[in-house]
Amino acid sequence: MEQSVQAYLSALPTCHQFVLVADPELGEGEYFCSVILSASDLLAWHRKEAETTTVYSWDRKVRRRALPLWLEHARIQDGEVVELPRNAFRDIQGAIADWVEAGQAHVWCYHCESWVDDLAITKEDEIDMGPLGRSWTDLWCCGNGHKLHESRQEIRWIIRKDRSLFC
Hints:
alpha+beta; 5-stranded mixed β-sheet; 3-stranded antiparallel β-sheet; 5 helices; 31% strand
């Protein structure tokens, strides 16, 4: 494991104060903006995530050990931005909206060519599927109405015979 972690780290660029965690090239075409997070916030998330989730994939285990080491050595006062390693996007994808909603992440609108201060986050076409669950589309727009992010979400309810509920 340590050899794999060191090999992964040696392929990474220098970590800077900010990390580009999402842009149009990442995901499946749901981002129409750039999302930047401080390396220190991403490091805190990685540490917390490691305590609360189990990982089975070897590659993900390597990233889980390597990325905090990379982030610990960030040049936290340089004001520069570094891209998150592309293969780590899936590891953090589920947390990006939380960072944006909490105001931790900064969003860049390409249409306005500026940082977004007044982000509107809405749920569109919400469907209640009764005992099966719910679905909706998350939509982010800047103050000028430019679409920044769009993704379909779904929750399925699993109800046991004893009527207890799992999500």
